[in-house]
């Protein structure tokens, strides 16, 4: 599917072998990391122009707009590209749970791995 993403922005993206860029989703006011998703050029375009976050589902091979079926929407507050062009930071106002398991973040279910804390 052809993308409507601006060519100058598309040129700045460093995609993986599947044409995707990692998108880290963060609660805009607290800094809480909610989840990670994947975007191709069209998903990024939709996110930048609709006010809602759209991802590319690697398992279903289709676009999905967060919250369309669950009601747990993500309202875009800002989108930034990292210095290497290979990751996006999407700041949102999260309504309800961010994780498909029903938890606030996708990092609750996996749990703390017990890393040694540096000084």
What does this structure look like?
- It is a single chain.
- The chain is an alpha+beta fold.
- Helix content is 17%, strand content 32%.
- The protein has helices at 7-12, 41-50, 107-110; strands at 21-27, 33-39, 54-57, 62-65, 74-81, 87-94.
- It has a four-stranded mixed beta sheet with strand order 2-1-6-5, covered by helices on one side. It has a two-stranded antiparallel ribbon with strand order 3-4.
- A hairpin with a 5-residue loop joins β5 (74-81) and β6 (87-94).
- The relative contact order is 0.20.
Mind summarizing the main beta sheet?
Answer: 4 strands, mixed
Shape: globular
Q: Which structural class do the helices and strands define?
A: alpha+beta
Point out poorly predicted stretches. none
Distance separating the two termini? 49 Å
Based on DSSP secondary structure assignment, what is the total number of beta strands? Answer: 6
* SS element count, helices: 3
Portion of residues in helices?
A: 10-25%
| Overall pLDDT level | 94
Q: How do the strands and helices of this protein lay out in sequence?
A:
Elements: H1 7-12, E1 21-27, E2 33-39, H2 41-50, E3 54-57, E4 62-65, E5 74-81, E6 87-94, H3 107-110
